[in-house]
Design a protein that fits this description.
Blueprint lengths: L1 H45 L6 H18 L16 H4 L1 H24 L2 H22 L4
Helix pairs in contact: 1-2, 1-5, 2-4, 4-5
Length: about 140
């Protein structure tokens, strides 16, 4: 019985950590997928002759929420079973700068959508999407 208790005490923290890491990976993959889908949606709305600004505001709020959330979803130890390259954790400075640039693009989109400024909204979206593409080239193992 003592051996079982000791074994559980030793393995449970590792198991919990693995579960926590997997939850983090799942959450960030969900955020990235949502960003991809929402960015496509907002691009379609902005391409219309008369964009539905209420819809643009709603979508851009979601994009901002997901991009802001991502900055906390790459903690040390969350690389196992991830599609992300180790460079994210080995040299996080550039990666974090890119995340912040993407986040700023979505914030610019959101602010422009509240002003109903089509040009600024498109620029914010383009900045965020360009950053996504750059980041994928540098930090994603499987495209």
């Amino acid at each position: 019985m003592k051996k079982l208790t000791i074994a559980l005490l030793v393995t449970l923290p590792a198991f919990a950590s693995a579960q926590s890491s997997q939850n983090i990976i799942d959450t960030r993959q969900h955020s990235f997928s949502s960003i991809e889908n929402k960015a496509e949606q907002v691009e379609e709305v902005l391409d219309k002759d008369k964009p539905d600004w209420t819809e643009v505001v709603t979508i851009s709020e979601e994009l901002t929420r997901h991009s802001t959330q991502l900055r906390a979803l790459f903690p040390e130890g969350s690389s196992e079973n991830s599609k992300a390259k180790e460079a994210i954790w080995e040299k996080p400075e550039k990666f974090n700068q890119l995340l912040m640039k993407m986040d700023q693009g979505f914030k610019d989109l959101y602010q422009a959508s509240k002003r109903q400024d089509i040009s600024a909204a498109q620029n914010g979206l383009e900045q965020a999407q360009d950053t996504c593409n750059s980041c994928h080239r540098s930090y994603r193992s499987r495209w």
